[in-house]
Amino acid sequence: MTKTGIQQGPMVLVSDLGHRFTGTGMLYQHVAFTVAAGQTLAVTGPSGSGKSTLLSLVAGWDRPTCGRVDLQQGARVCWVFQNPYGPNRRTVLDIAAFPLVAQEEPRPQAEEEARGVLDQFGLLGRARAHFADLSGGEAQRLMLVRAICSRPDILLVDEPTAQLDMRSARQVADSLRLLAGRGMAVIIATHDPAVAQVCDLTLDLEDYLPEGGTGDEAG
Ligand SMILES: Nc1ncnc2c1ncn2[C@@H]1O[C@H](COP(=O)(O)OP(=O)(O)OP(=O)(O)O)[C@@H](O)[C@H]1O
Ligand SMILES: [Mg+2]
Predict the structure, then answer these.
(1) CA 158 from centre of chain
(2) Helix H segments across 87-165?
(3) Where is each ABC transporter domain found (predicted)?
(4) Per-residue model confidence as pLDDT tens digits over 17-34
(5) CA atoms within 13 A on the CB side of 4
(6) How many domains, in total, are found in the chain?
(7) C-alpha distances in Å from residue 88, one per residue of 4, 40, 121, 161, 172
(8) Which ligand 1 atom minimizes the distance to the CA of 205?
(9) Per-residue pLDDT tens over the stretch 21-70
(10) If you take atom 17 of ligand 1, which residue's CA is the nearest one?
(11) What is the best residue among 21, 22, 26 to mutate for testing ligand 1's pocket, by most ligand atoms within 8 Å of CB?
(12) Phi/psi of residue 12, each to 5°?
């Protein structure tokens, strides 16, 4: 990732990207896409195709083997991990408001803003519940609320429905629709068609498999 960053245009610009780890073949090559502020992109592909890896390349955690990832200058990146996590004895409202309080928003305003986002994600009625008492779907939605309250420019979401039964997965997918239009560039790694369906753009990693196989079978 360049340190200078994009001055204008998309939030995320990926060009001719290819990646392999030591011990893996080329996962994909010639991957190219842009995500503008306010757009959502679903990255799909089977298990092991490199969806989570793509998120880590965008985040700059891994350096791509080929090609480049450019982010808009000064863009703040937030990542919602696959497994919801939170302190068991904290309330939903505390957890949601924390990123705002940490950005020195006065607590009343922080709580008001957090309540607004909780409401959008169907969690306002659970504001006083402890994290430990949430269902899997509620906990996953809280992670999205918390990420939004961090006010990122780029939001990376890894498998938001993987742990959920169909009904909760559907609720989370519906909530993901709300991410569009908040001005963030959102990239969601998913194998769930219901999630891909609510995104503006789709990138199927199977379309970028290296020619002549993965290289695993060579030599
Ligand atoms: N740090 C690493 N070092 C070596 N190999 C890795 C590393 N991270 C991932 N891999 C390998 O790269 C491949 C892609 O992994 P990745 O986790 O990105 O796939 P995925 O599409 O997210 O899969 P899933 O749907 O199961 O989450 C896998 O074969 C994985 O074992
Ligand atoms: Mg993954």
Answers:
(1) 5
(2) 92-102, 107-120, 136-149
(3) 12-218
(4) 999 999 889 999 999 999
(5) 4
(6) 2
(7) 40, 31, 20, 21, 21
(8) 21
(9) 998 899 999 999 999 999 999 999 999 999 999 999 999 999 999 999 99
(10) 52
(11) 21
(12) -125, 130
Atom of ligand 1 nearest to the CA of 53: 18
Domain end point (choices 108, 134, 151) = 151
Residue from 19, 22, 26, 53 whose mutation best tests the ligand 1 pocket (most atoms within 8 A of CB): 53
Alpha-carbon distance values, 67 to 1, 23, 31, 53, 80 (Å)? 10, 20, 8, 14, 25
What is the per-residue pLDDT across 117-161, written as a single tens digit (0 to 9) for each? 999 888 999 999 999 999 988 999 999 999 999 999 999 999 999
Q: How far is the CA of 37 from the centre of ligand 2 (A)?
A: 24
Distance 29 CA to ligand 2 centre (A): 18
Q: Do residues 1 and 67 both lie within one domain?
A: yes
For ligand 1, the distance from its centroid to the CA atom of residue 154, given in whole angstroms, is 22
Answer yes or no: do 6 and 33 share one domain: yes
Of 136, 151, 166, the last residue of a domain is 151
